[in-house]
């Protein structure tokens, strides 16, 4: 694929203190763009200075949210090089989301080529402080200037880059989670398995109410009986019962996380039994009460592996594991192994790494 390049004349100033990056607040010098229309398919791939779009207020994405996105990261190795973690899986999942949202399929290799070219240009933005990375946000939006409710005929695909630290302000410290029993995130036949903006917009109210109660996230239950564990919006969930790791099965209403899949594969390799199944919240409550639930954690690109220290289930609080502050043994081991591979400190036995530089 031919990619036109127009570089920024004057480079932006980079953050001076990488330990204070936060998540998704700073953006690099350039972005990758590609357009779609019926006549030309995906075309006009280019790398241009990062900056605002001029768009019609009638653009379909503003009204009916026909859009999808992905989340991935570039990591700085100790030798100064840069690498990606399972990037092809992200573009493959983007195409799954596209299919559900009636957005045309992408050529996944073209997307990866565009991303790699962009990273080579903005490589100095990949941070090197501990636990930092360059967060990558590929996105597609519907751009037809029309108000009819149907699939747009034109789209814009873009990739923006953001040097970031931990997703949670608390870093790797265990988070507290409110098991949501009022609102629901997704229902059977809906879009819960896709990465589409609406899934996140509709979660904000529940998140706000949970924050007011001093919880950092909500854990969604199924949309019909509000009884079976689904996901945390920003992460898939795992529960450790001794030598067994349990996670909700992919049922169509939760995101098929790439970190989730990596955690399953790593835990199996470490000798743990992994069960993907429908999990009744009462099973979690019982395990938390009698101590058989020894650890709980979430997994996600932004969240990595995030320990859960406390769960509120139907108005009652349950501390998971030894105490609310301590990170469980398997959680720590998975975090260390996963990040070890991502940052190139451990060998990539699974063939998950794509080197950029
Ligand atoms: C990611 O982990 O990449 C996501 O897209 C989750 C988002 C809430 C930051």
Condensed summary:
This protein is an alpha+beta fold and 357 residues long.
Write a structural description:
- With 357 residues, the protein is α+β, with helices and mostly antiparallel strands.
- It folds into 2 domains: 4-164, D-amino Acid Aminotransferase, Chain A, domain 1 (2-Layer Sandwich); 175-342, D-amino Acid Aminotransferase, Chain A, domain 2 (Alpha-Beta Barrel).
- Helices cover 23% and strands 27% of the residues.
- The chain contains 8 helices and 17 strands.
- It has helices spanning 60-64, 87-100, 108-121, 197-201, 204-212, 258-269, 281-290, 329-342; strands at residues 4-5, 30-37, 41-49, 67-69, 72-76, 82-85, 133-142, 155-164, 175-179, 217-219, 236-241, 244-248, 273-277, 295-300, 304-313, 316-319, 353-355.
- The strands form 2 sheets. Strands 1, 2, 3, 4, 5, 6, 7, 8 and 17 form a 9-stranded mixed β-sheet that branches. Strands 9, 10, 11, 12, 13, 14, 15 and 16 form an 8-stranded mixed β-sheet that branches.
- Strand 14 (295-300) and strand 15 form a beta hairpin.
- Helix 2 (87-100) packs across helix 3 (108-121) and helix 6 (258-269) crosses helix 8 (329-342).
- The two termini are 20 Å apart.
- The model has no long low-confidence stretch (mean pLDDT 97).
CATH superfamily of the largest domain: D-amino Acid Aminotransferase, subunit A, domain 2
Weakly predicted, low-confidence segments: none
**Helix-strand topology string:** EEEHEEEHHEEEHHEEEHEHEEEHE
Please give the number of β-strands.
17
What's the CATH class label of the largest domain?
Answer: Alpha Beta
Provide the helix percentage.
10-25%
Question: Which structural class should the secondary elements be placed in?
Answer: alpha+beta
> Strand share of the residues?
25-35%
For the CA atoms, what is the radius of gyration? 21 Å
Q: Number of domains in the coordinates?
A: 2
Mean pLDDT: 97
Straight-line N-to-C gap: 20 Å
Helix tally equals: 8
């Amino acid at each position: 694929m031919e990619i036109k390049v127009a570089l920024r004349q004057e480079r932006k100033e980079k953050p001076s203190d990488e330990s204070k990056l936060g998540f998704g607040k700073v953006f690099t010098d350039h972005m990758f763009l590609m357009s779609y229309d019926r006549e030309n398919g995906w075309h006009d791939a280019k790398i241009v200075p990062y900056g605002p779009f001029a768009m019609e207020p009638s653009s379909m994405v503003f009204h009916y949210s026909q859009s999808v996105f992905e989340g991935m990261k570039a990591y700085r190795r100790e030798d100064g090089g840069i690498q990606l973690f399972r990037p092809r899986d992200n573009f493959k999942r983007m195409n799954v989301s596209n299919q559900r949202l009636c957005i045309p399929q992408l050529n996944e290799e073209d997307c990866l080529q565009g991303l790699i070219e962009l990273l080579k240009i903005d490589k100095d933005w990949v941070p090197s402080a501990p636990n930092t990375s360059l967060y990558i946000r590929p996105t597609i939006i519907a751009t037809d200037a029309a108000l009819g409710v149907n699939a747009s005929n034109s789209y814009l695909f873009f990739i923006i880059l953001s040097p970031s630290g931990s997703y949670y302000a608390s870093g790797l410290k265990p988070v507290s989670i409110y098991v949501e029993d009022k609102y629901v995130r997704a229902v059977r036949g809906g879009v819960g398995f896709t990465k589409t903006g609406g899934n996140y917009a509709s979660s904000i109210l529940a998140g706000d109410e949970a924050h007011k109660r001093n919880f950092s996230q909500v854990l969604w239950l199924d949309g019909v009986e509000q009884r079976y564990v689904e996901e945390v919006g920003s992460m898939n969930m795992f529960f450790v019962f001794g030598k067994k790791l349990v996670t909700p099965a992919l049922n169509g209403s939760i995101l098929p996380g790439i970190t989730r899949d990596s955690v399953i594969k790593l835990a199996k390799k470490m000798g743990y039994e992994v069960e993907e199944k429908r999990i009744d919240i009462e099973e979690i409550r019982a395990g938390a009460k009698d101590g058989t639930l020894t650890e709980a954690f979430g997994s996600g690109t932004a969240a990595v592996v995030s320990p859960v220290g406390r769960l509120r289930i139907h108005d009652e609080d349950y501390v998971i594991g030894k105490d609310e502050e301590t990170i469980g043994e398997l959680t720590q081991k998975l975090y260390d192994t996963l990040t070890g591979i991502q940052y190139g400190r451990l060998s990539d036995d699974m063939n998950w790494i794509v080197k950029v530089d």
